[in-house]
Design brief:
Layout (H helix, E strand, L loop, with lengths): L1 H17 L3 H20 L3 H17 L1 H12 L1
């Protein structure tokens, strides 16, 4: 059952990503690049890399909120 739930969450996230504006998508890519670059070039080792993965996951989980906020402001 968990696999089905994960697939549904994955599909919902892909749908939310598809609904981002170009401006929102570019902004998120810049933020993501900054985190990834810090993890790769920084001195924090695996602890920092894990922290970056958690931050990136949080960013993705907030994409539906971003879409809702934009849609509500356009209404």
């Amino acid at each position: 059952m968990k696999e089905t739930s994960n697939l549904n969450e994955f599909d919902l996230m892909l749908d939310a990503i598809n609904n981002l504006t170009e401006e929102d998508a570019k902004s998120l890519l810049k933020i993501i690049y900054g985190f990834v670059n810090t993890a790769i070039t920084g001195e924090g080792g695996n602890e920092v890399k894990l922290e970056v993965i958690n931050k990136l996951s949080g960013i993705y989980k907030r994409i539906p909120e971003l879409n809702d906020l934009r849609n509500n402001n356009n209404s």
